Structures are given as C-alpha cells and as structure tokens.
C-alpha cells in the first residue's frame, strides 16, 4: 500500500524501491490493481495526487484502475517496447491523462478512446485552488471523465 503525505502544500507519494528505480525510465506504475486494469490514469507533477485520489474513488466503485506517473515522456519514449507495454498496455484503451498545462501533448498516450483533463487554451490569473476548480482539475471531474469513457 502506498502512503500519501503532504509537505509544504505539495502532496508527495511514497514509492517502493522498484518505483524509485523506474522514475529514471520516464514513467512508472505508481498504483496498480489486481490483474489487467480497465482504466489507466496518467499524470505528472502536482496532478499525480489528483489521479491517485480519483483512482481511489473509482476503485471503491469496483473499477480496476492503474495510476501511471510520467515525469519525463521523452525518457519514457526511449524505453524498450516491453517496458512501455508493461506500463501502458496497448489493450487497455480507457485512459485519462491529467495535465494542468495544454492537453494536446497527452493524446498520443490516451489514444482515440481516451480523454485528457487539461487546458484548452492559455491560462488565467487567480489563486491556484480557484483555477484548478475552474478548469476541472478536481477529483470529481477526473472521475466523471473516466466514467464517461468506461
């Protein structure tokens, strides 16, 4: 079980030794389910905690969810096919990426059957908490987006 704690306002995820080693591979499985997942949530940076919380809600509803943290897509792209397939199995089409910046980049990872919770235009100016709600960076919106594609 992974524990979550908060330091200086940023939620950090505890990781096991394998996950720590896999950070250097650009993306890794942060939270997994038994068997093949029916949904993969992808996130990076501050959005990872939102994905973890959304996965917990979906799991409580009986869904099989994997959370992938992708700190460096460029490094992940350089990994061998076997590792990339291990992290993002091609047969799992239901995918949601969570990105507080422009969403366009993430479509290559979610495919035609997935969705991206991200910015559709240039940003706004306001406190971060207000902006996250305004642009849908909430656990509730991620869960709603996931349910729509499942």
From TrEMBL:
Its EC number is 2.2.1.1. One of its GO terms (molecular function) is metal ion binding. SUPFAM superfamilies: TK C-terminal domain-like. Its cofactor is Mg(2+); thiamine diphosphate. GO terms for biological process: pentose-phosphate shunt. It comes from the Bacteria. One of its GO terms (cellular component) is cytosol. The keyword Nucleotidyltransferase does not apply. Keywords: Magnesium, Metal-binding, Thiamine pyrophosphate, Transferase. It is an enzyme of class 2 (transferase). The keyword Transferase applies. Belongs to the transketolase family. Homodimer. This is transketolase.
